[in-house]
Amino acid sequence: MKTPRSEDLESTEPAHGDQLWPMGAVSRRTGITEHSLRAWERRFGFPRPVRLPSGHRRYTSEQVRHLLLITLALDQGCRAGDVVPMPLDRLEALLREAGALDAPTEAAPAERWLESLMDGVRRFDTATVSGLLQRDAGLLGLPRFLRERVVPLITELGDAWADGRIDVRHEHFASQLLETSLRTLRAPQEVSASGAPLLLATLPGESHELGVQLVALASVIAGRSVRVLGASTPVDEIVAAAESLRPAAVGLSISPTTADDATRELVLELRGRLPKDVRLWLGGAGATMLGALPAEIRGLETLDDLDAALAALATEPIEGPGGRAPKRR
Q1: Can you tell me the distance from the alpha carbon of 324 to that of 199, in angstroms, rounded to the nearest whole number?
Q2: In order of start, what are the domains of the chain with their CATH numbers?
Q3: pLDDT digits (tens, 9 = 90+) for 128-157
């Protein structure tokens, strides 16, 4: 086999907006060891990672999809030396001929994926639910995964519980698996996150943490570091953490079950006690149920709203102590 030239092994540039995956995350999603990824890069010229200035490797979503196909071919008994350098169209043809038509080469339509996952929830099938989440995170890339899978799933879980199609035990089971998946996906992305962090929590009595984990992952994808205090955090503790960390914003997730006058009063109390230069953001389906709030409390109803708020933060200087912009005088 022809040895790739050094210039053939140079880093490729990702498509605009493509999600880049650290090597450890790629290894976990595909089952291919980091040693094998490096060895294949040297021997076959694939996968050719994007190289950061630090020298660390990053892989595009398309490369992750290609590697998933290679994993499937290896499971069919093929040799790495045959399938790793094989062009993608030939590899797909090989798998079709082998009868591997239901291989995870492309993400299933959203409705079918959601139906399969909810069926797994009703059966308490951890392998099915976790597998569907992990697979589509790799196939779609994280931004699309959040919008096309996680947000519809959270909505469906709430609707199915309200309609009696699932019970509380099913909702709790699914929520725990989804929260674990979001935490796992966030960990490798946090290496490149920077700036004054977002401080994320829920108020006392609020045990639903899915919104917090969703915002945390979306934020680190956008390059913003986060600190997660978790569910049912006392106002005193949120204030103390904000005074210590001087975050860019404090984000609260509020579910409809806690959107009452007591929660509204806690929100107003928190705003009054936070440092003036620390923003307060509210998200979750219950945030809009609290009624009119002061203008300095910002509601973020959708991921587009969050993206806009993060983009506004990105335009501010971060050269101050601890990453904070110097205060205006």
Answers
A1: 14
A2: 11-97 (1.10.1660.10), 110-184 (1.10.1240.10), 193-322 (3.40.50.280)
A3: 899 889 888 877 888 889 999 999 999 999
